[in-house]
Amino acid sequence: IGDQIVEVNGVDFTNLDHKEAVKVLKGSRSLTITVLTGAGRELFMTGEEKMAAEARRELDRQELMQQKRVAMETNKIVKEQQEKERQRKMEISQKAEEEEERYRKEMEKIEAAERKHNKDWEEDWGAKER
């Protein structure tokens, strides 16, 4: 019920009037027909069935809107998590750089102390034999 003939033997039926359609159908011994199933179903529905179909479409629309809201919220959460992870990595990188700088300065102090110790030794006792 409600199927629509779209094409017969290569002839487009979507804008063809009834007389022309009958002429095409009667004018051939074999027919190749393309049909769109359920295209005019509403024409055969009762008022109650139309209201039920409209209610189903509205429920479907509301469900799709809910799915869209959930998807958007999920996307927002994912982006927030990605931003937190990016910031965490930046903090780790910054701390590693600070630690590396602290280590470099500490090594400079140790090397300076060692040079001073060697200089003092040489002044007091002469050059060390190595």
Description:
The chain is mainly α. The protein has 2 helices and 3 strands. The chain has a 3-stranded antiparallel sheet with strand order 2-1-3, with no helix packed on it. Strand 1 and strand 2 form a beta hairpin. The model has no long low-confidence stretch (mean pLDDT 90).
Residues in helices, as a percent range: 55-70%
Content-based structural category? mainly alpha
Q: Element order, helices and strands?
A: EEHEH
Give the DSSP E fraction (strand runs of 2 or more residues): 5-15%
Major sheet: arrangement of strands = 2-1-3
End-to-end distance, in Å? 106 Å
Topology (elements, then pairings):
Blueprint: E1 4-8, E2 11-12, H1 18-26, E3 33-36, H2 47-125
Antiparallel strand pairs: 1-2, 1-3
Describe the structure concisely.
68% of the residues lie in helices and 8% in strands. The chain has 130 residues and is mostly helical. The N and C termini lie far apart (106 Å).
Keywords:
single chain, 130 residues, mainly alpha, three-stranded antiparallel beta sheet, 2 helices, 68% helix
